[in-house]
What does this fold into?
Amino acid sequence: MGQMDRKLVTLVFTLVVSLWAGCAVGAAAQQQDEVVVRAIPAAVGYSPEFDRALQRGWRSETGAPGHSYWQNSTGYEIEARLDPETAKLEGTVQILYAHDAPANLNSVLIHLHQNLHREGSPRSSEQDITGGVTITRLAADGEELSERPLEEGPGWEVDGTLMQVRPTIRLEPGDTLQLDIDWEMVLPQRGAGRMGHSNNEVYLVAYWFPKMGVFDDLSGWAAQPYLGNAEFYDDFGNYKVSISVPTGWTVMATGELQNPEEVFSAITLDQLEAAAVSDTLVVIADAASRGAGTVTAEGTDGWLNYHFSAENVRDFVWTTSNVQRWDATSAEVANQIWPDADTDSDDRESDDRESDGAEDQALPIIEPVVDGTRRVLIHSFWREDVAPLWAEQWRHGQQAIEFHSEYTAYSYPWSHMTSVEGRDIIEGGMEFPMMTVMGAYEGQDASDLYNVTAHEIGHMWIPMIVGTDEKRHAWMDEGATTFLEGQSKMEHWPGVDHHRVGARSYLQVSAARQEQALMRHGDYYEPGPGYGVASYLKPAALMVALRDVMGEEDWLTAYRTFIAEWSFKKPSPWDFFNTFERFAEDDLDWFWTSFYYETWVMDHAVGRVVSKPTGGATVTIEDRGDAIFPARVRIRTSNGMDFVHEIPVYHWLAGNDHYEIEVAPAAGSVMRVELDPGGYAPDVDRQNNFWPRGSGE
Ligand SMILES: [Zn+2]
It folds into this structure.
């Protein structure tokens, strides 16, 4: 990034009070010379890598993907076998890495996430020690390789959770690399609070296979180790996965089950068919009917083999249990057919990509054809003895899928959404494509379980459909998801402004000057509230604030367009910023810099209200913080006038720290002044938003 330092400017300026277009209020102009020192936000600069991506048409100034946008993809064929008694997993994977980047690669990057649990691996918090991943075989393009320092030649080398593989032949654009890897490991009970097992009877198997790292247009290899806190950044890939578990154990996974007749009993198949068209609960199996031959098929030699297939997903996870109750129902969403973004992107190109942006505004909005509705299976796996609130989980899952599909205007694209109760594995929730694991929520309110469900299912949109870099820019997926969770809570738990509740917690931290910037890697926050506020509460509150600034219609179009244009692609923060600016038809750098790059505090206040003997008054609005934000001022007078006056951001950007509003004599005396009547400005001190003081909330 360019110059993001706090810039203080000293200006000698002339303040011209703007015209107040109220019928009973005359306009007054007044001049005064004053010395003002205030912060002015710097313009958002692009990194050299983003500039290069613009020049080459990989990205665009409009915020839409560029006409030559590229990303690599990977095909995985995995066979795995889990022994639930020992938590030992053995697997083989064939990886086909399609290298579409304009670069030659001497080596490739693979994630071995389970090395988080290896003795001596770097990590940001204490973890179960399991020994990590043991690679028993690795071949590249059919050539067997061994572990060795890579400067000595082809081979592979492991450093914490990262493995570099150097094949015998360098990878050139258009090549496909084939890797064959055999590995084994013991799954932890609690893998960074995101995966693991409970009592050897419930497994949530995630971050479990050697996974290709991302090579992208902005960073090259994203060689970011998994340290436990910052989450993930993945390419989209296709998976064929065969999973062996003992007979009686059900498996659900990302993707489609290919052989239901081989693994499920006739009753289970019938119940699944019923759930696929039902609006209400269908019990597939309860704890009492869990045995082999009842829920699952008999299997061969005591084992069942489940085959799954998933296309264009960011990750592949699975769950297995021999005790959980299995509830199901279905959600109904609009059946959308999206234009193929690749073939259409050229048609959608505007003519004025790199100059003044005027033509770029005309970029047509990407919209789907809607052909009726379609149903999404909702599964819920849970234990009745430990998680009674989960009796309603099938409904929570259904509600969240339906609400989010509608609000984002992007229907949930997959065939099922599965919730897994994971007591002992996790307290909150964790998201994966088509699946979430959440705590038991013992002794908590039903709304708590709904809220976490709405959140985790919200992640199906970002980062699962819109593939952001969760490690570098956690605010992109967590902020958008916390916002969507809040929006959905407004519908399901009305009577409270849930957005304001979340914003208040952020503003307390902001007022205490304990914030850390959003534009920071998720592994590098200081202990304390910094990470949580910057990743969840603040960016969610900023979505609401920006909606208030842009107006609901433009904001919603920008939000929905961002999701549609970046579906199954990998946007950066600058694509996000540019998309919103396209629909705001305005430069919003003041907003991004004040709130995303900086931790500036915003505090508007009603200053003096000076009544005039002949009636009317001068109302002074002060900007006591550094962060720039437009102000909305509501004034009521003794003659029954009730006005809202807007102070545009340009007034503050010109270096001013106060603004005077002249109320005309005909309006009578000022009875009450209120700043931000909507309540969505990120203002740290609302007490000073009212006159007379103390007349506020
Ligand atoms: Zn989240």
